[in-house]
Amino acid sequence: MPSALPPGDPAPADGSLPASALAELGAGPISLYLHVPFCATRCGYCDFNTYTAAELGSAPGASRQAFLDAAHAELALAAGVLGERPVDTVFVGGGTPTLLAADELVGLLTAARRHFPWSDGAEVTTECNPESVDARYLDALVAGGFNRISFGMQSARGHVLRVLERTHTPGRVAEVVGWARQAGFGSVSLDLIYGTPGESLDDWRASLETALALEPDHVSAYALIVEEGTRLAVQIRRGEVPAPIDDLQAECYELADRMLSDAGLGWYELSNWSRPGHECRHNLAYWRGSAWWGVGPGAHSHAGGVRWWNVKHPRRYSAALEAGESPAAAREVLDADARRVERVLLESRLADGLPLEVLTPSEQARVPDLVARGSIELTGPDPGDGPPNRRHSNVSSPLSGNARARADTNRHAAPRLRLTLRGRLLADAVVRDLLD
Ligand SMILES: C[S@@+](CC[C@H](N)C(=O)[O-])C[C@H]1O[C@@H](n2cnc3c(N)ncnc32)[C@H](O)[C@@H]1O
Ligand code: SF4
Asked: Given this model, what pLDDT does residue 272 score?
């Protein structure tokens, strides 16, 4: 079952934003997220906002066409609220976006292009379940403007895929990556999961070796989280499947970091590694607190310190847009302190680190102790003192032109703190210890 939405303040039915949020955006760029809420079957560990055909039934409003009509309507609503501003990154996620026909997926992109001007070199990603595409499909996506693809590989071991209830075979990923390269995707990413019950360190090493043999530009490696309400959580509670082991997950993380870095993929966020220049600009936009509009059931958005999130069920989502109203369920206007705390939580995940000046005096006073414990390190302002190959790499931020140059200068002008490998293993606890 998808998890519940957070509470919040009422969101205006016309989708409008406070003048202060629009003023903060100025003429700056935005990112777009498109959430496709369909999966062929639900993997036992997943609590994403996604539905199988059996779960949706045949009720009107929950069909694929109803979703597409509503998503097109929400794009028009977004354009009306945000006005003309460039789109720097688009990310289509899910669910399984590739359950839509290629022309339906491209149709959403074409509509977004009609509503917003496009930045030069915009990054356009879709997630893809290896099961659900063939070579012709991938060709059509590239012809339609997609230039980045992220495959849900998860593991190269059949017994691990079975516990995760994944339906693809281990060999399928090599096939789809080959098709993606032939189609001309400029960046190919693989999602992996470690710490699955029954997975040994050797199994995980084999998954990393198999992934690296495919020469991906980018790898996301996530520790398996046992989400409440999933089949996996029930199986663990009943003792049918053992719970993930924290120490083994830590060893898996260290092994991933070592093998991926040795292969030329540096970490740039806790769970993400890439070849230089292939960082996911869309996700960097989230972590750097930029503006994005999330289209689709349950999608979250942020602009100028205002966060809002859509109703989760596809039927309610379509009904709102059919009635000419915003599908937002609620919103939250963050005050200055909440925004500062959020900045600490998000930017401390990045290899680029967090400027020390964002911390309050009492938080800064805790820094020496965390440095002594080996959890964080300080970098800059000495230009030679940044993350290797990152400080002056061509990481593209969600900002563009002068704004990006200004932000980059600022990012490196002041001392910054960054998690060490040890700190990354305990990131949540380290940041909790740091914050007032
Ligand atoms: C929306 S899915 C990716 C696209 C596609 N639906 C698929 O699974 O192939 C995004 C990624 O989130 C990760 N994920 C989902 N649930 C997770 C969990 N409970 N623990 C860790 N990672 C999870 C998986 O690696 C998955 O590839
Ligand atoms: S295919 Fe992806 S989104 Fe769908 S249930 Fe599995 S992990 Fe979740």
From this structure: 98
Cβ atoms of residues 207 and 256 within 8 Å: no
From CA 179, how far away is CA 138, in angstroms rounded? 7
Which atom, in ligand 1's list, is nearest to the CA of 130? Answer: 9
Q: Which of 326, 331, 417 is nearest to 370 (CA)?
A: 417
- Name the residue of 1, 132, 191 whose CB sits within 8 Å of the most ligand 1 atoms, as the mutation to test its pocket: 191
Q: Which range is most confident: 20-29, 172-181, 387-396?
A: 172-181
Query: In degrees to the nearest 10, what's the CA dihedral of 294, 189, 96, 330?
Result: -20
Do residues 41 and 87 touch, judged by C-beta distance below 8 A?
Answer: no
Q: How far apart are CA 363 and CA 141, in angstroms?
A: 47
Q: How far apart are CA 8 and CA 10, in angstroms?
A: 7
> Among 338, 272, 327, which Cα is nearest to 296's?
327
CB of 130 closer than 6 angstroms to any ligand 2 atom = no
Q: How far is the CA of 48 from the centre of ligand 1 (A)?
A: 8
Query: For 395-414, how does the pLDDT look when each residue is reduced to its tens digit (9 = 90+)?
Result: 233 333 333 333 444 445 68
Cα Rg, the chain, nearest whole Å: 21
37 lines ligand 2 (CB under 6 A): no
Whole-number Å distance, alpha carbon 129 to ligand 1 midpoint, is 10
pLDDT tier, 393 (very low <50, low <70, confident <90, very high otherwise)? very low
- In sequence order, what E strands does 349-394 have? 354-355, 376-379
User: Which pLDDT band, with edges at 50, 70 and 90, does 2 fall under?
Assistant: low
To the nearest whole percent, how much of the chain has pLDDT over 70?
Answer: 91
Cα 7 from Cα 366, distance rounded (Å)? 32
Which residue among 38, 39, 160 is best mutated to probe the pocket of ligand 2, counting the most ligand atoms within 8 A of its Cβ? 39
Segments of 202-327 assigned E as strands: 218-223, 266-269, 272-274, 292-295, 300-303, 306-310
What pLDDT does 396 receive?
A: 32
Q: 35: which 2 tokens?
A: 């959430």
Strand partners, 221: 192
135-158 residue pLDDT tens? 999 999 999 999 999 999 999 999
